[in-house]
Amino acid sequence: MPETPAQRALTASTLALAVALLALASFLPPLLASTLQSVLRIVVTALALAIGLILHWVFLGVAAGRMERGRAGWVGLSAALFPIGSIAALILLNWYTHDSGEAAPALRHG
Questions:
Q1: Helix (H) or strand (E) segment spanning residue 24
Q2: pTM for this entry
């Protein structure tokens, strides 16, 4: 079964989220000391976090739009409840790509 454009966007969103979470992990206690040793490392890690999050939200919105679902709601869920909301949004949207389109009609866009 060929991959749909929505599935490709969800894959890109998942990879961007993984990059953002790895960058976020660098600021947690086990890795914090090594991250703070260099200003360059702090800047690069912060940029990776910011770019990863932005790309995650952009690709999540693209996937929702390609599935004819409300972009703002899915991106808002992902942003407001980060990181659990991001993971939940990816799982639900991936599930809806395999759905016949009859489940959860209230979540459909206009």
A1: helix 5-25
A2: 0.84
Q: What is the residue type of 22?
A: L
> Is residue 80 pLDDT above 60, yes or no?
yes
Phi, psi for residue 23 in degrees, rounded to 5: -65, -40
Phi, psi of 33 (to 5 degrees): -60, -45
φ, ψ of residue 36 to 5 degrees: the values are -80, 0
Q: Which helix (H) or strand (E) holds 56?
A: helix 39-66
The alpha carbon dihedral of 96, 97, 102, 105 has a sign of positive
Q: Quick: pLDDT tens for 41-72.
A: 999 999 999 999 999 999 999 999 999 999 99
CB neighbours of 21 closer than 8 A, spacing ≥ 6?
Answer: 52, 83
Two structure tokens written together for 17:
């989220």
